[in-house]
Amino acid sequence: MMMWAWTPRQPEYEQMIMGIYATLGIFLIRAAKAPLANASLIWFTIWSSIVHGWIMFAQAVVDETERANLVGDVPALFLVAIILWYLMPKGTPPR
Questions:
Q1: Which is more confident, 81 or 9?
Q2: Within a domain: residue 92?
Q3: DSSP line for 59-95
Q4: 1 falls within a domain
Q5: What's the number of domains the chain is made of?
Q6: Of 14, 80, 92, 93, which is the most exposed, with the fewest CB atoms less than 10 Å away?
Q7: Spatial separation of the C-alpha atoms in residues 74 and 42, rounded to whole Å
Q8: Which domain holds residue 28?
Q9: What is the pLDDT of residue 1?
Q10: How many C-beta neighbours within 10 Å does residue 18 have?
Q11: Distance linking the first and last C-alpha atoms of the chain
């Protein structure tokens, strides 16, 4: 069971997603040095991870070929959102 790849393989989409998340990761690392000054980027990451996770969850429930996402991608997205939310300095409301 493959949890971190499309079945059937779609290398073009995998490269696109990896590029987007690698870029976001670099900007989040930079934002971590001044989280209050970069709160909108961090909150975007939190909320987009939550939305992405819920969409993938719904798709996995409806489409049995997507069930592997329930043990891979979905928990990972929610974990990222939870960790970032926890680490955000208090007093920065979710936007």
A1: 81
A2: no
A3: HHHH-GGGGGGGTTHHHHHHHHHHHHHHHSPTT----
A4: no
A5: 1
A6: 93
A7: 19
A8: 11-87
A9: 46
A10: 10
A11: 37
Q: In whole angstroms, give the CA distance from residue 81 to residue 87.
A: 10
> Has this prediction a pTM greater than 0.85?
no
Query: How far is it, in rounded angstroms, from Cα 67 to Cα 56?
Result: 9
- Greater pLDDT, 67 or 79: 79
Name the nearest CA neighbour of 57 among 45, 68, 44, 70.
70
CB burial of 25-53 (b: ≥16 within 10 Å; e: otherwise) equals eeebeebeeebeebbeebbebbeebbebb
Examine residue 24 and state whether it is found in any structural domain, yes or no: yes
The per-residue pLDDT for range 24-40, each reduced to its tens digit, is: 999 999 999 999 999 99
